[in-house]
Task: structure prediction
Amino acid sequence: MKKILSIVVIALVLISCAVQLGKDGESGKDSNTTSTEKATISQSSIQKSMEYLASDNLEGRATGSEGIEKAAVFIENFLKENGIKPYFETYRDDFEFTNRRGVKEGEEAPVIKGFNVIGVIEGNDPKLKNEFIILGGHYDHIGFGKEVNGDKIANGANDDASGTIAAMEFGKYFAKTKTNKRSILITLYSAEEMGLKGSSHLAERLKSEGFNAYTMINFEMIGVPRAETESIAYMSGYERSNFAETLNKYAGEEVVGFFDGAKNMNLFMRSDNFPFFKELNIPAHAISTFDFTNFDYYHHVDDEASEMDYEHMTKFMNKMIPALEGMMNAATKEVVLKDE
Result:
C-alpha cells in the first residue's frame, strides 16, 4: 500500500510541475491566452478615475493651474500603484511656452509651465521590446467656461479625461498581464487645448533621443457612444495608413471605422497624434467615439462625469484589447503609412 501511495504522490508532483511550466515556462503559450481572457478593464475603475479627474475640485484642469497639478499627481500615483515605471528620470516631462492667446499687441505674453506624464511598460520579447507603441491622451482642459446656472467649471469629462483614462487603463492591463512583446509608452499630455504644446514637445524630445517608435494611438473623447448603425469608434486620418484595418483584423470585428467628418474637419492635424506623425514619421492617429452628433457639451461646463456612458467606455476598451495585442505582438511591422 505504501508503495502505491508513493507512486500516486510522485505522479501528482509531476502533474503540478507540468501545470506550472504551462503558466510560467517557455512552452506555456496557453497561459497568456487564459490570462488575457480573464483579465478585463473594469467599469468601476474607469468611473473612479473619471469622478476625480472631472471633479469640480480640479477646476477644469487648465495648464498651469493648481487643478492640473492635482490631476498629474493622481495619474502618477495610478501608474506607480499599477507597476508602470517612469520612462524618464521621473514621470514628468517638463516644458514651457509663451502663451499669446488673449494678449493685446504690445503687451508681454506670459510664460506657461507644463508637464506631460510618461510611463513605460517593457515588452516581453528580447528583440521586439526595442520597438515602442505609444498610447496617449491629453489630461488638460480649458479651466473655466461660459457660466450656466451658476456653474463656471468646464470639467472636461469627455474632453479628454475619457481618453486619458483609456490610456491609463490600457497601461494597467498590460502591466498586469505582461502580454505585450513590444514596449508601450503611456503618455498623458498637457497644453493640448493651447495648441498641442505638450505632445509637440514630447515628440520633438523623443526624436532628438533616437526613440524607436512603431505606432502611436491618441485616445480623444471616447466617453459617449455613437449610433448603433455606426462602428463603435472611428480613426482620424483613416486613409493615411492601414492601422484601422490591422486593428479590426485582430479585434475580429470593425471596432474602428471611417468617419467622413474627421476628414472634412481635418481632425488628423488637430489632435495630439499629429506631432508624432510629423516628427517621427510613423502611423499616428486619434481614435474617438464622439462624432459631433452624440454629445452637446463640447467645451461646455456640462461636460461632467455624470454625462459619461461608463458601460460604453468599458465595452470599447475591452474590445480594443485584442486589437492592441495583435498589433503589438505581430512578428513584423504590419502597420505602414500609405502614400497620400
About this structure: Residues 1-36 have pLDDT under 50 and may be disordered. The chain has one domain: 33-329.
